[in-house]
Amino acid sequence: MKKQILLIEDQTLVRKSLVALINTSTHYEVVHSVETTNDALEYIQHKPTLDLILCDYNLRGETALDLLQQMNTDHSIPVILLTSFFNARHLQSCIAHGARGFIFKECDMNELEEAFDIVLSGSTYFKLQDTSTHNSPLLSTSVSIRDNSANLTPTETKTLRWLATGMSNKEIAKVLGKSDQTVKAQVREVMRKLESSSRTQAVAKATKLNLI
In the chain, what are the domains? Predict the structure, then answer.
């Protein structure tokens, strides 16, 4: 049985093209497509068996962040975002609100299936290759949330991922809703566990170990 996908895309031609493309897959199918986050949320309430949500980041008068913020915490349906351009801050906000993947609209079916497979296996997919804007290990690595050879706690792993985006302790604290001192202590512990003398070295080592 094919995995069921809800597509959210406000541009009619793009939506139809994506539906046609994804439905060529032997493993995935778009069971429903909508133009707004409100329509998506209404559909989700009546279709709890969905496997995946694929959502354009920029929608008419709203963004995918609106969807992520409104989704009830009871919903365990992973969300992958589509975009025509890259913005590091947008990505950071979406990750903070539970996005599990972020890819360019220009991707082909092979990359879509790769993203679907990785996210549904329990990992995250952020292969955004755009050297003209921001080059971050977080954006060029498929992140396995189960790989933890350095014995990092879930909180430390989350902090490490924010470190990889280049955010300061103060910025990370704001996103995570923690104090600066708490984040500083977590960063120090991450560096200790990774046997690193700097934040940059910790991120580099974590990337090599596929921790982020």
Answer: 3-143 (3.40.50.2300), 154-208 (1.10.10.10)
Q: Among residues 14, 15, 19, 16, which one has the least CA distance to residue 31? A: 19
Amino acid residing at 104: F
- In the structure, what pLDDT confidence band is assigned to residue 139 with cuts at 50, 70 and 90? very low
Q: Can you spell out the DSSP letters for 45-104? A: HH-TT--EEEEESEETTEEHHHHHHHS-TT----EEEEESS--HHHHHHHHHTT--EEEE
How far is it, in rounded angstroms, from Cα 99 to Cα 68? 7
- Is the per-residue pLDDT at 122 higher than 80? yes
Task: Look at the pTM and tell me if it is higher than 0.70.
Answer: no
CA distance 70 to 85: 24
pLDDT band of 146, cuts 50, 70, 90: very low
